[in-house]
Specification:
By secondary structure, the chain is of the alpha/beta class. It contains 7 helices and 17 strands. A 6-stranded antiparallel β-barrel has the order 12-15-14-13-16-17. Strands 3-2-1-4-7 form a 5-stranded parallel β-sheet, with helices on both faces. Strand 10 (about 265-270) and strand 11 (about 275-280) form a beta hairpin. The longest helix is centred in the first third of the chain and has 20 residues, at about 95-115. Belongs to the MnmA/TRMU family.
Length: about 375
């Protein structure tokens, strides 16, 4: 009999979750693997790798000598993640479904299932850490020790109950060490490439995917002078800061003062839903792409309570260094709780619908969905 309690590990088929299961088994836990199937609309497509991933996960379970169960959460996913994803895109915002998937599926549906299997904890291959603060009695979500792989940004919507039941073993390691362990113990996926892209879309062309679910409403592309320089295929298909796929290369900005030559790239800067107009600017540092502050709503504080107003750091997108800021808690016009961040330096292409996540050093406090981010005037 195992001396330590049962832990259910989310085995994705990747190397991180595989090493997670191995480390927990080495520590003496009673480990069971669960493979989560969250998407099944086009399971036979070249872009949907769930069948391959399950084969890899099962092979890992075989090597480690643990049970694995295939569980279908596709209905929950469609209802609680994908429907919200489409609503946000249709409203002209750019959501982050991976964050919602963690809060609603991996640490809710999956957690509930694991508890029914008699588990005391669940574990995933995320690069993050959980620590119990003895002084406050609260669980803290910490950054992973590998700064290049830290995934606390995607986990900021977890609540105290979820954090108390969760283990992140690889959060204590660097990715190179995880790969080394996998090679050493002969895991079949030791060299498997990391997955990229949105959880259910995989590597497929994003615009092609959205085409199936969102109707196209073409409209004008305009520069800051109001000149129409092209046509967009539908505002939902663009995000702030985007420079690829605009179809306006080679057009010069109007007026020499902008400094935009023929080869200076264009960027999406604004989306006017009412007038169905896409506004673009030339040059990465254009004032329309610089925001000194933002307001966020739909707040989730994984720290268990809202932080006191003051100096913190924040990320407005995943691949970004922490940006120093001042936080102020506030109530939105509709009475909903929110917060405002004022940054020490202007932030680039802050995008409504994405998440602003707040940190106090290595501790992730939580965050909210970006509601607005006024830019510098031209």
């Amino acid at each position: 009999m195992s001396q330590l309690p049962r832990v259910v590990v989310g085995l994705s088929g990747g190397v991180d979750s595989a090493v997670t299961a191995y480390l927990l088994k080495q520590q003496g836990y009673d480990v069971i693997g669960i493979f989560m199937k969250n998407w099944e609309d086009d399971d036979d497509s070249e872009y949907c790798s769930s069948n391959i991933d399950f084969v890899d996960a099962a092979a890992v379970a075989d090597v480690l000598g643990i049970e694995i169960e295939h569980v279908n959460f596709a209905a929950d996913y469609k209802d609680r993640v994908f429907s919200e994803f489409l609503r946000e895109y249709q409203a002209g915002r750019t959501p982050n479904p991976d964050i919602l998937c963690n809060a609603e599926i991996k640490f809710k549906s999956f957690l509930d299932h694991a508890m029914r299997l008699g588990a005391e904890k669940i574990a995933t291959g995320h690069y993050a850490r959980v620590r119990l603060n003895a002084a406050t009695g609260r669980h803290e979500l910490l950054k992973g020790l590998d700064p290049s792989k830290d995934q606390s940004y995607f986990l900021h919507r977890l609540n105290q109950a979820q954090l108390s039941k969760t283990l992140f073993p690889v959060g204590e390691l660097h990715k190179t060490e995880v790969r080394r362990i996998a090679e050493e113990i002969g895991l079949p996926n030791a060299r498997k490439k990391d997955s990229t892209g949105i959880c259910f879309i995989g590597e497929r062309p994003f615009r092609d995917f959205l085409n199936r679910y969102i109707s196209k409403e073409p409209g004008p592309i305009k520069d800051p002078s109001g000149r129409t320089i092209g046509q967009h295929v539908g505002l939902s298909f663009y995000t702030l800061g985007q420079r690829q796929g605009l179809g306006i290369g080679g057009i010069k900005a109007k007026g020499a003062q902008r400094g935009g030559g023929e080869h200076t790239p264009w960027f999406v800067a604004r989306k006017d839903i009412e007038k169905n107009t896409l506004w673009v600017v030339q040059g990465h540092d254009h004032p329309w792409l610089q925001s000194p502050m933002l307001q966020a709503t739909d707040v989730s504080w994984c720290a268990g309570m809202a932080p006191t107003p003051g100096a913190y750091a924040a990320k407005t997108r995943y691949r970004q260094a922490d940006a120093p800021c001042l936080l102020q808690n506030m109530h939105m016009a509709d009475g909903q709780a929110g917060f405002e961040l004022n940054f020490s330096e202007n932030q680039w292409a802050v995008t409504p619908g994405q998440s602003a996540v707040v940190y106090d050093g290595e501790v992730c406090l939580g965050g909210g969905v970006i509601h607005s981010a006024p830019t510098l005037t031209t």
